[in-house]
């Protein structure tokens, strides 16, 4: 049930925006389950439909264990949607973080 809720939330993240694992956990009603959000996305049953590449860690960094090609693949997908990365390789969350509302 939790995984399905995570997938529904992640489907709502619009192109050009990102969310954090903790943010998705909070939106799912379980603010202490950020790691489980990661596990859910690692098992994404619909890659390309559920845009798990739009979920980053709390610092705005790509996931080292991105299940569908690694950090560089995740970064390339985000850049293709217009998400910018700073010199440290982090996404500016103040600029690109989704507010949690429907697109």
Describe this structure in words.
The chain is mainly alpha-helical. It has a single domain (2-96), classed as Orthogonal Bundle (Arc Repressor Mutant, subunit A), CATH 1.10.10.10. 40% of the residues lie in helices and 4% in strands. The protein contains 5 helices and 2 strands. The chain has helices at 2-11, 21-27, 34-42, 70-80, 93-96, and strands at residues 19-20, 55-56. The chain has a two-stranded parallel ribbon with strand order 1-2. Helix 2 packs across helix 3. The longest helix has 11 residues, at 70-80. The radius of gyration is 12 Å and the shape is globular. The model has no long low-confidence stretch (mean pLDDT 92).
How many angstroms separate the termini? 24 Å
CATH architecture, by name, is: Orthogonal Bundle
Strand order of the largest sheet: 1-2
Strand content: under 5%
Report helical residue fraction. 25-40%
Q: CATH homologous superfamily?
A: Winged helix-like DNA-binding domain superfamily/Winged helix DNA-binding domain
Poorly predicted runs: none
Q: State the shape.
A: globular
Helical region count?
Answer: 5
For the largest beta-sheet, the strand count, sense and barrel status come to: 2 strands, parallel
Domain module count: 1
Short synopsis of the structure:
Helices cover 40% and strands 4% of the residues. By secondary structure, it is mostly helical. Helix 2 packs across helix 3.
Q: What does the secondary structure layout of this molecule look like, with pairings?
A:
Elements: H1 2-11, E1 19-20, H2 21-27, H3 34-42, E2 55-56, H4 70-80, H5 93-96
Parallel strand pairs: 1-2
Helix pairs in contact: 2-3
């Amino acid at each position: 049930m939790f995984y399905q809720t995570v997938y529904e939330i992640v489907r709502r993240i619009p192109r050009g925006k990102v969310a954090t694992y903790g943010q998705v956990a909070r939106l799912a009603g379980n603010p202490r389950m950020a790691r489980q959000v990661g596990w859910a996305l690692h098992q994404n049953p619909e890659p390309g439909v559920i845009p798990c590449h739009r979920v980053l860690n709390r610092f705005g960094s790509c996931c080292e264990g991105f299940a569908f090609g690694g950090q560089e693949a995740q970064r390339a997908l985000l850049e293709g949607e217009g998400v910018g990365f700073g010199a440290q390789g982090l996404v500016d969350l103040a600029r690109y973080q989704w507010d949690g509302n429907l697109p």
